[in-house]
Amino acid sequence: xxxxxxxxxxxxxxxxxxxxxxxxxxxxxxxxxxxxxxxxxxxxxxxxxxxxxxxxxxxxxxxxxxxxxxxxxxxxxxxxxxxxxxxxxxxxxxxxxxxxxxxxxxxxxxxxxxxxxxxxxxxxxxxxxxxxxxxxxxxxxxxxxxxxxxxxxxxxxxxxxxxxxxxxxxxxxxxxxxxxxxxxxxxxxxxxxxxxxxxxxxxxxxxxxxxxxxxxxxxxxxxxxxxxxxxxxxxxxxxxxxxxxxxxxxxxxxxxxxxxxxxxxxxxxxxxxxxxxxxxxxxxxxxxxxxxxxxxxxxxxxxxxxxxxxxxxxxxxxxxxxxxxxxxxxxxxxxxxxxxxxxxxxxxxxxxxxxxxxxxxxxxxxxxxxxxxxxxxxxxxxxxxxxxxxxxxxxxxxxxxxxxxxxxxxxxxxxxxxxxxxxxxxxxxxxxxxxxxxxxxxxxxxxxxxxxxxxxxxxxxxxxxxxxxxxxxxxxxxxxxxxxxxxxx
Length: 489
Ligand code: G6P
Description:
Elements: E1 7-9, H1 34-39, E2 53-57, E3 72-77, E4 80-87, H2 91-110, H3 117-120, H4 132-152, E5 158-161, H5 168-174, E6 181-184, H6 192-198, H7 201-214, E7 219-222, H8 225-237, E8 241-243, E9 246-249, E10 252-258, H9 265-274, E11 290-296, H10 303-315, E12 321-327, H11 334-356, E13 361-364, H12 370-379, E14 382-384, H13 395-403, E15 413-417, H14 421-425, E16 434-437, H15 442-453, H16 462-470, H17 473-486
Parallel strand pairs: 1-2, 1-5, 2-4, 5-6, 6-7, 7-10, 11-12, 11-14, 12-13, 14-15, 15-16
Antiparallel strand pairs: 3-4, 8-9, 9-10
The protein binds 6-O-phosphono-alpha-D-glucopyranose (G6P).
6-O-phosphono-alpha-D-glucopyranose (G6P) binds near residues 34 and 391.
C-alpha cells in the first residue's frame, strides 16, 4: 500500500486558503511542522468514489469560500485531486481547544520525556492546566471530528493524527463506530512519573483522559519504542492490562507500536536540485565552514542553548559562518513570545561575538521560501539541530537527502539533540554523519561544534542516505496501515 484510501483526521487542514478563489495559492510555509510533511505524501487521489478524505479544521481566512454546505471541497494537488472536508469553529472554542489546551497544556506536557524541562531551562513553560471551559472546548472540537468521521466513513479505516485530537478514537467508539481506527502521535509521549511532578492534580486528570482517549484506537503508533513503552506504562497505571504490545481496557483492545515517520525523499531531492545559491547573507571573502540551524521557532528545539554555543565558539576563535532560520509558529501563545525574546537576546550576543572576530552570523525569525531552506540544507557544512525533545525532527532527514547532491568527502555532518526521535530511529549512524549531542550540556555542545567545524566528525554517508530513503514517508504509512488493517502487534 503506498496511498491511503481512508479518512485522515488532523487538526491542520491539508492547506489553509490564504487567497480568494481564482487567485494563486500562497506557497507552502517553509517549516510547516512534521505532521503535514509526513502525511502529505501518502494521500490517494479522489476518483469520485474512492481515495483519501482529509478532515481538518478551517483556519484559513478564505476557507469558507471554497467549501460546500458540509465543508467539502476537492483540492487540486501535485498528485491529483484530494477530497477534503473542513470543520469550522467559533473563536472562543478554537481559543480553548488550540491555544489553551493543545498548545498551552498538551504540547509542553508531551515533551517531558526525561527531565522536568520547565525546572531546568528558563523558558520551557510549565504545562498550564486548561480551565474547565478550555477543556470543554477541546472536547467539543474532538467530538466534532468524531461526528464528522462517523458521518463520512463508509467502513474504511480512519487514521487520526496527533495530540490535538487524542480524544477522537474513544469518542468514535462511543458513537458505535466499528471500522479500524488508527492513532499516531507525532510528538514524544511523556514519562508519567516525571509529568506527575510537573502537573497539578487536575492537569493529571485531564492528561489521563488523553490516555483513555487514545485507548479507543485499534492501533496506537508512536515515534519510538521508548514513546510506545511510556504510553503502555501510562495505560497500565489507569488499569489497562497488557499482553505483549496489546492493551486491554474497558472491553476494547489496542495494539501499540513504534512507527518512526519519514520524508518524501524524491520530492526533497527535486527541490534541492532546483535551489539556487544562498542569498540569505553575503559569504565571507575567505571561505570558512557554514553552520546552519533550521526549525519552527519552538521552545522544544533548544535554540537558546545552540546560540550560546555558537557565541562561545566565536569567542574561542573558531572560524565559521552561521545561518539560523526560525520559522514563526503559534504566535500569540505566551510561551512563544518569551522564547522569541530569549532567542533574540542569545542571537544578539552571538552576533556581537561574530562581529568582534570578523565572522558572518545571521539569525532570522521569519518564513523563508522552502526552496531556500532546502538550499541551506544542501550547502551547509554542519547542520546543527539541538532539540531538547522532539517526536522525530525531520530536518536531519531532509538534510541527509539534500547533501546527497554533494560528492562523498565534501558532505556535512548533521548534529541532532539526543532527545529527538531521529537520534533513536537512526541510532547506529553516528559514523555515517548523524552525530548526537546533549543540548543541555554546554561542554558537550562546545566540543561537538568545535569538532564539526574542524571537520573531525564523520560526514553524511551513502549508507545514511539509503536508510533515510528506505524509511521514507510511504514506508512509514505502509507499515502503519498494514498493521492497522490486520490489527497486528
Ligand atoms: C508539530 C505537531 C503538529 C503541528 C505542527 C505545527 O509538528 O506535531 O501536530 O501541526 O507542529 O504546529 P501548528 O500548531 O501550527 O499546527
